[in-house]
Amino acid sequence: MEHLLWNVDPVLLKLGPLELRWYGLLFVGSFFLGLMILTKIYKREGKDPEVLDSLLIYIMVGAVLGSRLVHCFFYEPDFYLSNPLEILKVWKGGLASHGGLAGVLIALYVFAKRYHTPYMWLLARVAIPGALTAAFVRFGNFFNSEILGLPSDAPWAIIFQRVDMVPRHPVQLYEAFSYLFIFLLLIVIYRKVTPAFATKILPGVFLTTLFTMRFFLEYTKTRQAAYSTDLPFTTGQMLSIPYIILGILWIIWAFKSTSRDRKHDKASPR
After folding, report:
1. CB burial class (10 A; 0-12, 13-18, 19+) of residue 11?
2. Of 67-76, 130-139, 152-161, where does mean pLDDT reach its minimum?
3. pTM for this one?
4. Where are the domains of the chain?
5. 3-state helix/strand/coil string of 78-118
6. Partner residues linked to 159 by β-bridges
7. Would you say residue 40 has pLDDT above 80?
8. How far is 258 from 198, CA to CA, in rounded Å?
9. Number of alpha carbons in the 13 Å side-chain half-sphere of residue 87
10. For the chain, what percentages of helix, strand and coil (3-state, to nearest 5) are there?
11. Environment class of residue 269 by beta-carbon count within 10 Å: exposed (0-12), middle (13-18) or buried (19+)?
């Protein structure tokens, strides 16, 4: 059986010592697409989109810092604790999506306080382009021939020629297209429900769907952590479990809270 050979150069353009990589283009590009989406949302809900340039900076800084620190201390702790200056060399690669989300959550909180924006409202709206960014990051991993899947004889398996000649699950694409579906799901929910309910439900749907998908797709990945444990889960799965639990609890709270609000409205005197 013949399999697709993938040997695309991860460097899109090189100008002397400067390199433009597919990963960087997709990563930064996803933030600007997200900015366009948030601009439409802000206008739709009568908010001032002028603050979005600042919001973009907060999100990008939070995403990079969070993803870098979690990668260093959860995936390769021995190496980075022995070579702390290597933590600063982000251009060498090494970003963890779980940490990126944690960094964004903190950045959004700081932004909300400074610009007097309701944190929950902001969190719910940013979740929509957040799923798009997650998809673009995985497309970037695909161009880098990294985060490889396990060997497979499936007809859609891909040989990442820059790594070896073994047909593997294209797990980067599994994740990317899953996250694109979640992005579309969040848009549909946002457009179908009231703004108040969207504020409550969207973060929970984002966390539950994205990290549940991440958890199960880990079974098709090679282990990424530079260490092993006696636990039956990978590092990626263990980091996903708290987000999944939080997401489920969030969805339950959203429905219960809305139900209480409706009962209160009916009981209130007219």
Report:
1. middle
2. 67-76
3. 0.88
4. 4-267
5. HHHHHCHHHHHCHHHCCCCHHHHHHHHHHHHHHHHHHCCCC
6. 5, 167
7. yes
8. 11
9. 20
10. 70, 5, 25
11. exposed
